[in-house]
């Protein structure tokens, strides 16, 4: 039974014996009385069950390394330590309807190919041998490179280094797609794809960004560019900083885009890289939509709903929907970079995106 | 622990003492091992917890009538018997992430105005006095009329008859918007809106459909047309039947559209009216996306995942995502009409729509 | 040699013997000096060669009737008296890059089928037997009905009355498509199309406007609806007048639209019907884009660039691009209706649409 | 009087005295008989009056250099030798409705600011001091750089070198915009703009192509990126050549795009750079739409409607609409690059684009 609220337009029905009998009759008919739940299901503002969490790489890395010797890739499918929000355990979500995890591959190892209705992305943390074959395009990716595995694309991963392990972060919309009753999974009939001859062909074909193959006829809903190198990304941020003051809430922030449309890389997940200049501390805002952050460079802290989280390179943290958040680079001399992915494309497609800036206290939260 | 599957690419890790200790370490770090849940969260095909349900109007109507005397509109907020899928109780959903309910208003009664991030629609069942004010436009609606209350629109309802009660069906995306952590609610500062002078102004302005006000400049994501009369709808179906064989799965079926774009009426929910010709029995198909049906006219039956549901006027039933379904008009002389609403716009926006036709047994399911 | 202008940034080069010799050298190389034409080809504002023209039906009708006995349809291709702007003779244009003409068909007559890259539209003036087959859809059209023949569509016309002639107005973008070097023409291999069984099938299929066939998959750039009946059009204007004050420049004005997109009926030409209330006199404005008007109902006058044109039923007049224009209904008791077609879709697609309102003299032009 | 054609559906009316009198009557009413011009204005296929032309830089450069001392920039507005197609003299067009010219600026010279409804682009030929200020953004451009001046943008140019002249090629849609009666022109109220502090800011802000400023809100119809450096362009071609066989008609060909949409740089003109590999000879095709080519690198020849044109660096040539054309790189060891601009965006927006491949003779034209 939902809490009563004494406001006109809200439910304030008291339980009576007669009503209890009525509710029981309804239940037998697969029905119920709206007023018993109305105040709960029509909240004054979003009520995420997700909470802010900081996952320290210093804590997680030893576990990930351990996992590499505890299970084989073949037995595990993929060897991943997933990050689970205390409020979203039943969905295996890191925040909102987003999943994330740390995947490790040993030297010379490769995983078999599969595909699913869920979409995936990767952000590489360490190791030089990482590769992934997506729809036949073999991508080589290194630290801080960003790559995508769109819905329905065959994919398989591996590590062709002969000495170093690879660790990367996976991001997926599995909780979203499951909640929408739309997920599916297939293993590749041949276990492995036959990649094209040229590596990183999508980068060669679509990576210019400011020119496209004439007549390029792309009718899919995701980016034809599958990998976004760190060097290009960081250079873009530095260039942007020369001409723009940036966002008061995010500093210099750029979105990875589909170069053929300027839209988000995939229809369910977007991704950003942002740069906080030395000493920069942003103002607080909040918005619908959930975000997973990865510290790509530097150290600093974020305040999320009044809670301070201090972060260092490769730490991961999350901002639930509608949570106040602000970021600070704690270095006086070096910039800091935050990679992040989100479900903003969902919010925008469904017309559910809303944002608000903190007005009081110069735009900064009070620590709780 | 998820079920193991002995297929390459699926998880088949056995629990060991060492692993149990490892899992416990991970849990302490808000983490987990993907392979313990992978086969569950990456299912071979959609696994809705919703089940097919038929809600008989003969059963529900007496309850709805009872409610009209048991609680006041003021106390209840709105007086609604909601229909709850046994598999979705925690979300108050009728199927998937769709909510539906039967609302009753007594003669002369009116509800106070509010708005929410969730979107709503109405399908009128009985009574002549129904009105609703949406964003200042006062709509008069009668049996089998369809009306929308888009996200963020102020709305209030009432019944200006002096003798008959009004019952209509509400459809909302509340479970979806709550799951996306994006719902919000406001009561109107003046309790009631001041409606414009002309009733059904959106119908007068945008109802022609084949002409629009020159230079109409509409930048919202939902239809400017707020009410769709039954007479126009039924005539459209009869006209369509003269030129089209219709869909093998749905007979003659038309979608209510935004006349300025041809798109769905709202970005999260679409609505159809379909006509099954006398004696028509359609073939089975399935698709991602959930549907709530209301029998607007006639009687017949549907088979959903092998289960036969016999329906009569004003019965409501649901088809979960990916469930096989086919419909039959059991009258040899009269047509039957099914109103339905769905989350197909979400499936399309997020590129998650997939469908499949039943090939065997002439396209008909075997009853289970 | 263009006129010199003594404004910084404009050309004011004087001819000299040396320059004359230079110009002659350039001409031999298929070249020229920009400054000799710059002030002409970069005018301060649009410089149409089209002039306002009123074509009185009382003058034209006798000629059209004459033509019906002077040439056969077979010999003429189509029997049309075209309206030619004195400033656009070389292009056979009525105004700007728009062509128009009056076509007559004798009882029982039919024309052979052809198609062209140019797009066409029809507005019926008199006669009850008019039909046209467009892409296999046989349309029956009567007075004040509007119909389209999109680019590339096979079409043929006729008159199945056994006693009355048919006269309709043709509108085409022939001058535009020729100027763009993109026109082409084919005669139908079988001389005549085999029409579908159901007449006006596009109206039955798409005419509802506020509902569409579910899953309608239309990938062409023009409206699937080929005919727009006068009754629906006039009713839409009367409804609009109940809720809208209309445009200060055009009264109650609606655009015929593609019901699947809300866009113009064809990518090169749009069409409107407007209603001037009894006694209504609009204010003057001007815009890029050319318009051909047809008086569908009533009588009144328009002032175009200071020139008053008095019009009666079935008169045709034109407004050149960037010409000031305002309209008045000269009846104190009856409404007047103006059908018009234009090249606004071209202006909008190419981002060349601009408009300005007359501010002085209460928005009315002084007669010149 | 148009030529008669003895084909059913074409006009074949013979002049008679009666008809001559009729035509004269029509002329007095600003009218005419369609059948007297029908076969002309409805041609079997496009009938451009433009002809293929090769403008040799060896011929033009001396004239351009001469012009620099013969007229001042102030007197000329801009000092430009324009290239005029023998068939389009009245429109000052190089081909179809496209204008082009060679502009020269002396060391230290600058032109005053203006704007127009016509759109412009530049392709730099020689000189290191070229700059242009477009909407306040100061661009520095060097040889083979491409830059745009969209419709309505204030712009001014200059040369800040202290010793070398600058020559660049201008491309404009002036003939198109004039033909559409939509051109206009303003001189800047302050004669010169005040440029922003950072040079090439659009390149810094939007040049990454594969990332965009987060939340970039661009509601104009042209690219926010105003300059496209040659180095990036050439690298893109070389990368493309690694993964693609290219077009059979154009070799490796890429379109300069609006990085926020993937669309053409402006709504009326598109631009390409293409690379012909050593020894490559393409097959012939034709399409609606006109093209101006500039030889950016290398030497070779093109065959246009059977006419061979041999080209060297900085030569300019044109291909009229619907003309057969094929290109060959005559070097066995070096690649050749052709810059080109066109009116394809117009053809696509108006649904007038059509193309055809030559089937006979292995796809190669016979020389005429």
TrEMBL record, chains A, B, C, D:
Record keywords: Dioxygenase, Oxidoreductase
Pfam families (alphabetical): Cupin_2
Classification via CDD domains: cupin_GDO-like_C (cd06992), cupin_GDO-like_N (cd02216)
Transmembrane segments: none
Keyword Oxidoreductase belongs to the record: yes
UniProt GO molecular function: oxidoreductase activity, acting on single donors with incorporation of molecular oxygen, incorporation of two atoms of oxygen
Entries under InterPro entries matching the protein: Cupin_2, GDO-like, RmlC-like_jellyroll, RmlC_Cupin_sf
Domain Cupin type-2: 102-168, 274-336
Protein name: Cupin domain-containing protein
């Amino acid at each position: 039974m939902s809490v009563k609220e004494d406001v006109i337009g809200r439910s304030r029905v008291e339980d009576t014996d007669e009503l209890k009998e009525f509710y029981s009759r309804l239940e037998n008919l697969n029905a119920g009385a709206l007023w018993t739940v109305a105040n709960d299901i029509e909240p004054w503002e979003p009520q995420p069950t997700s909470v802010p969490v900081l996952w320290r790489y210093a804590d997680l890395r030893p576990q990930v390394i351990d996992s590499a010797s505890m299970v084989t890739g073949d037995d595990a499918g993929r060897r991943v330590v997933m990050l689970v929000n205390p409020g979203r355990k039943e969905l295996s979500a890191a925040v909102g309807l987003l999943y994330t995890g740390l995947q490790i591959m040993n030297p010379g190892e490769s995983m078999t190919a599969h595909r699913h209705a869920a979409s995936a992305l990767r952000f590489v943390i360490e190791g030089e041998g990482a590769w992934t074959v997506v729809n036949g395009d073999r991508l080589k990716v290194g630290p801080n490179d960003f790559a995508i595995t769109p819905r329905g694309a065959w994919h398989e991963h591996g590590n062709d280094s002969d000495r170093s392990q690879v660790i990367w972060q996976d991001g997926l919309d599995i909780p979203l797609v499951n909640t929408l009753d739309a997920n599916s999974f297939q293993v590749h009939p041949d276990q492995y794809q036959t990649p094209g001859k040229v590596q990183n062909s999508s980068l060669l074909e679509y990576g210019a960004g400011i020119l496209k193959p004439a007549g390029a006829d792309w009718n899919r809903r995701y980016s034809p560019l599958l990998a976004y190198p760190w060097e290009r990304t960081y250079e873009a941020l530095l260039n942007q900083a020369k001409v723009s003051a940036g966002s008061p809430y995010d500093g210099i922030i750029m979105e990875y885009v589909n170069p053929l449309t300027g839209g988000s890389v995939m229809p369910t997940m977007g991704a950003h890289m942002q740069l906080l200049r030395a000493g920069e501390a942003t103002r607080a805002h909040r918005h619908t939509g959930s975000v997973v952050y990865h510290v790509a460079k530097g150290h600093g802290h974020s305040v999320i709903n009044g809670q301070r989280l201090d972060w260092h390179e490769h730490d991961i943290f999350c901002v639930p929907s509608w949570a106040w958040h602000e970021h600070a680079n704690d270095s006086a001399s070096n910039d800091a970079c935050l990679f992040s992915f989100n479900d903003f494309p969902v919010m925008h497609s469904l017309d559910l995106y809303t944002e608000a800036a903190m007005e009081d206290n110069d735009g900064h939260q009070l620590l709780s």
